[in-house]
Specification:
two-stranded antiparallel ribbon, alpha+beta, 4-stranded antiparallel β-sheet, 43% helix
């Protein structure tokens, strides 16, 4: 289930056809599972006939460590792929965050709202802002009433 969630997250970022690996353990044994999404937005989960490791045997621990080192190389490729789709995502995320903060400001004006934000008359920065290098969310001006 966690692999499918990670695949959906990558899809939201615009990255498809990228494998996500998981480790299912039972006692001293572990099995590597995988999930990925096709360009047709179908999620495939591979959990049968997968590689199993008995982590009490030194040779299989070595094989598992080798597998993890290969994953590290894939991680570098994923970072590069993320950099390719990031400019498009930053623009879209900026629009969504601006819409979200405007909705929060509108909701704070109503007394029945559970979220209180900065008032419409305050001339401060938006609680959420997107900059080209990082995403930051300032929650210091938001509070939740129960």
């Amino acid at each position: 289930m966690y692999c499918v969630s990670a695949v959906r997250f990558l899809d939201v970022l615009g990255i498809r056809e990228w494998p996500v690996y998981g480790l299912v353990t039972k006692g001293k044994e572990g099995a590597v599972t995988m999930a990925c999404m096709s360009e047709a937005k179908r999620i495939y989960v591979f959990e049968r006939n997968v590689q199993k490791f008995d982590l009490t045997e030194i040779l299989q621990v070595y094989h598992f460590a080798t597998f993890l080192l290969r994953l590290k190389e894939k991680q570098k490729q994923l970072v590069e792929r993320f950099k390719e789709v990031r400019p498009r995502n930053d623009e879209e995320l900026g629009r969504k965050l601006q819409q979200w903060t405007m909705e929060q400001a509108n909701n704070s004006a109503s007394p029945s709202s559970g979220v209180v934000g900065a008032s419409a008359t305050t001339k401060s920065k938006s609680p959420a802002s997107v900059d080209s290098d990082k995403l930051s969310l300032d929650v210091s001006r938001l509070s939740i009433r129960y």
